[in-house]
Structure formats: C-alpha cells, structure tokens
Amino acid sequence: MAETISADEFRDRIDARRRGEREFTVVDTRPEESFAGWRVADAVHYFYKPFHEFDVDDFERETGLSPDDTVVTICAKGKASDDFAAELDAAGYDDVVVVEDGMRGWSAVYDRTPVPLPATPHSAPPLDIVQVQRRAKGCLGYLVVGGREAGAADNADHVLANSSDSDRVAVANSDGSPRIAVAIDVSRHGDEWVAAAAERDASIAAVLDTHVHADHLSGGRALADELGVPYYLPAAAAERDVAHAFEPIGRNETLDVGGVDLKALATPGHTDDGASYLVGDAAVLTGDTLFTDSVGRTELQFSAGSGDEGGSNTGAAGAARRLYDSLHGTLLAEPDGVVVCPGHFAVANDGTTGDVVPGEPVFTTVGDARRGIGILDLDREDFVERITRTLPEKPPNYESVIAANRGVESPPDETAAIELELGPNRCAAEPDAGSAADD
User: Fold this and answer.
1) 143, 188, 243, 411: most buried, per Cβ within 10 A?
2) Does the pLDDT value for residue 198 go beyond 70?
3) Three-state SS for 179?
4) How far apart (Å, rounded) are the C-alpha atoms in residues 341 and 436?
C-alpha cells in the first residue's frame, strides 16, 4: 500500500535527495499543459485520469521506470495521484509515495532561514533577520527582530515621534516578550512569521508590505488584525485606491524595532508605491525593486488598469525611469557592505531555481549587485529600452491578485485563493541582453 506524506515531508525528502541521501523519481500525473506551466524540479510526466484503464507497460515505456524504483506521485490536489499510486502498487511497485494535497500543498511549503549580517559593535542592539521562503513560488518575506533596551519600547504607542531630528515611529511590545519583531511581505500563511518570532522569543509588533503585490495574495492585513498590531503600507499606496485600512509609512520615516531603526526608502518603479526598508546600517529589504541577479519589471501596475501606458512619464517606460532613479539614486547609494534582501528568487516553469538552493538564504550585497548585475551598468535610456523591449509572461491572475491586495476584491473561499496564486512568481526583469524580464 502506498505511503502518503505531507508537502513538508516531501520538501525534506527532496533536500535529502539533493544531499545524496535518498533516491526517488517524482511522477506528475496532471495534464501536459499544467505540467509544462509549473512543476517540481526533475519531475517526469505521465498523464493519469482516475477510473481510466492503466497500462503499466505504457507507463514504463514513457518514464523508463520499473518496480525496482521508488516513485513519488503528485497531481493538482492529491486525488488522482493517490489513485495512480494504487495502480502502481497493484502492478508490483513496492515503494510508492503520494504527496498529500498535490501541487496545492507544494505551493504552501516554506523554509525559514537566518540572513547572514555584517558584524556590529557589541554596544549595538541585537538584530536578527529571518528570511521566510515560499519554496514553490520563490516569494521571500522577512522577520526583523530587534533587541530591547530597558524601558525603550515598553507601553509605547505606535505614533510618529515629533522629535526634530528624526521621523520615528515607536513600535510597542505587544505581549511582554523579551524581543520585538516586525513582519514584512507576509503571505497568506502568516503562521510562518508567527513561528519565526516564537523561535526567537519575540513578539510581532507591526506588519509591513513593500508594495501592493501582483503575484501573490498578501496576508499582511490579516496577520495584523489577528495580532492586534498596526499594518503599514508605503504612503504612496494611497494613490492606488487601496480600500482596506493601513498606516502610511512615508519616505524616510523610521520604525524603532527594539532599538534597531527600520527606515522606509521610497523606491518606485516596479510599482508607484514601492518602498524598500533599510534595517540599521546592516541590510536593506528591497521588495521587487532589486533582486540578487536582476531588477523589477515595470508594467504590471499599469497593465492592470491602474495607469496609462502611453506617455514618456507614465506606463512601463515612465516606471522604468523611476526604477532607474530608485536603483542608482537610492539603493546603490548605500555602502557596498549593506546586505540586499530581495522579495523573490526566480523559479522557472520546470521548478529549477538556478544558483539558489531553497532553504539557504538568498541575498547579495550592494557592492556585489553593482558589480555583478549587468543591467545596472547601462545608462538611463538604455536601461529603459532594455526593460521595456520584451514584456515577459505575466503572473497568473495578476489583475485579480492586485485587486485583492488593494482590498477591492476578495476570493470567495480558501480554494479560490489557492487557485488564484498557483504558479511561480514573475516579478523580475530578465538579466540577460535578449529579454526584458522573467516576471
């Protein structure tokens, strides 16, 4: 009888296979079109429909497998692959495993990993940055955990300080935990950020998004409501007619996270409301503005009906000019050693992730980005031409995803939400000279 494993257990077995500790073949039974559009890396395809006659000889001709092999079956929801596993079991396959909930389950698999930070003086407040990776989509969120100086944040309200030397928002410690955290770019699965905070004896005192996302449903507003803490969007999001309530964080406004400053940098381009968050002098969370090997695409907001694509200062070309200025005038102006924490890593349709090893931190530095990302060597007009030359495939259902993240639409149920955001992210511009984006 076939064994059923959770998607998290499947992740662990994939990692063990990468280390040479396991051997198995993943067989994806979905229709060819679904398989071609998004799959687990190294999976082989064999279409199977329940209650249709199964021909084991045909299966072995197509896949090259035999009863001596370990087979892991996966489909869209886990039902067809379960039936298929039973067929293989009846045909003499003794080692067959089914992934529970199929690709839906795989879409909700996460890794949590600390980001390496430069050394700081012993007198500096403690700082941890946890990267929350959504493995199948390549989405990256963060938990920034500060220390706590005696009395510094106790019983503070989240109000803008009126001091003359800074625009600081004091973040209250919500439950008496030893450390204070803020969650950034939270997905629908906010429990991952809560778990990351618990692992560090921290309470989440605020939730932020870097922009109105186009490729996945934000869980920021929901997590903030659940925890009873403020939810921040960049102040420019007000111009996008965001319908749900949020606290605006403006250019150069700063959250005090247990003695660590988290400063909002306006970095429009990918979207008009885009912001990056500078964490002390150690790291910058760049959202979809700057990645480890590329930069953000610039037309999704306008393609979704939120702007005019025609003029020189509007649409994709105008956004590309703003992106150039955000990159060179803001992010690349930071010291070379500042760690760049992007909002995504690239996941190809075939499930491969290039040089990224899922479960290991995805980051670069300002200096390495400046020297290593070719498109950053271009002058402003050549940059704009490159970014807008060839518009890549758009994220699935991106218009509905944007509408949901603006709060003007809502998926009717969990099943609809799952279907809405299936597939990899596509928010980055293609780094090579032949194309303008991989998102």
Assistant:
1) 143
2) yes
3) strand
4) 22
